[in-house]
Amino acid sequence: MFIWFTMLAVFGALHIADDLTIFKALSPYYAIEFLITYPHGFWLLGAVFLCTTGAEALYSDLGHCGRDNIRYSWIYVKACLLINYFGQGAFLLSHYNKLTVTDDIRQAVGINAFFNLMPEWFILPGVVIATTAAIIASQAMLSGAYTLISEAIRLNLWPKLRIQYPSEAKGQLFIPAVNTILFSGCVFVVLYFQKSSKMEAAYGLAIIVTMITTTILFANYMVLRRINKAFIYVFLIGFFIVETAYLVALLEKFSHGGYITLMIGGIMFLVMYVWFRARKIKNRYVEFVRMEHYISKIQELSNDKSVAKHATHLIYLTSADNPKEIEHKIIYSILNKKPKRADIYWFVHVDTVDDPYTSEYKVDHIIPNDIIRVDFRLGFRIQPRINLLFKKVVEDLVQNKEVNIMSRYESLASSNTVGDFQFMVMEKYLSLDNDLPFIEKVIMKLHFMIKHISLSEEKNFGLDLSNVTVEKFPLVVSPVTNVKLTRIDQWTDRV
């Protein structure tokens, strides 16, 4: 990248002397005069805007490169870009002054403001360097996409996907599903537009929306930091005037391909909105109960030999942060929905922390050798291979003589046979007994469609499928209350 930007500065500097009047471009007077004299020139802002693209990638790289790295490198990068643009402008003024550049003339005389700066012998190396720089620069989009999706998953705004961490740095990650989506999207865009010149509308519209969003977010940040309101309003008015002008100019090309940007963005927004709203709807159903209220009932079930034993060790994954609470659905699964008798009940909770290599666990013997809770604290780079980690916990407990994992079947106990371990995964489905409004019903149906193609709970937690039981239970958010049904004592024939 250093070679690329240095090349831009060198060739720009070689041609600035072609026409020194190019430095008039430093004055906004001529731009304003042009727009006043030629009102239709306003629509040229859509093409001029592409000169500003690239800066938005800095925000994507902020989390990967750090603020100071970007601040210092941007001084050199911006200087190289400005020198190159001045060189291009001086070259055009010198060689094609007073010539209206159209696509036909550009093809006829071979006008390419960038490559014409290079001597003929350097064209091929220039193309190679430009292509290499484009490949490297594409990493900003890849890194940004992976980071945004991973953060959305952690915020529960996106379906669960498998995440890989190829390096030790926190910002470096790889999401195979997102990579596949990006590949498919790139192929679609290339086949649809065919020429890069036709992508200007879609690309420019995407960038200006990004910049407007950044302006709004920064203004919100200033409000949180209690910055003077007058300064915030000046900031918003100044930036909105410029950005809105570019937005209006770019919307003129909406029908020429700009709608592709909104279509792609709309799909992503729909997925996030459905996932967010569905979680809000489901939260009306999620109920946590005090563990102490059910300990005696669970013990009675464990000692009730009239109930067929489901497993020696029964393990439930719980989302309850409070160790004294448990989801009502788990209690319902154990006691009500085909009672599940076991010798030892385990409740496992996983908490993801910001440190990359944290790998800790805590054990709470609610009832020794009967009910045990295990809390894992795992770093963001530690794969949640709960099956493997749980085995290690059990080994430590056995070594410390804190738990007896031997089978309690009379025929197996004498031979010191280790009991079986069974994980229970609770999978919800939308019950027909719901009386949801139309919009919420559509949202929940879309939610379960998306969930069907996303990563399952057992795979997300790295469980061995051979000892996992997936139990489906109905999600009743808004039960039907007004059931009209009349009892009669005798059927009567009606004509």
Structure description:
The protein has 495 residues and is of the alpha/beta class. It folds into two domains: 2-277, no CATH class; 288-475, no CATH class. It contains 17 helices and eight strands. It has helices at residues 2-16, 28-37, 45-48, 57-65, 67-95, 103-109, 123-154, 176-193, 200-224, 229-251, 258-283, 295-303, 328-336, 386-399, 410-413, 438-453, 457-460, and strands spanning 288-290, 309-317, 325-327, 341-353, 359-367, 371-379, 421-430, 468-475. Strands 5-6-4-2-7-8 form a six-stranded mixed β-sheet. Strands 1-3 form a two-stranded antiparallel ribbon. Helix 9 (200-224) crosses helix 11. The longest helix has 32 residues, at 123-154. The model has no long low-confidence stretch (mean pLDDT 83).
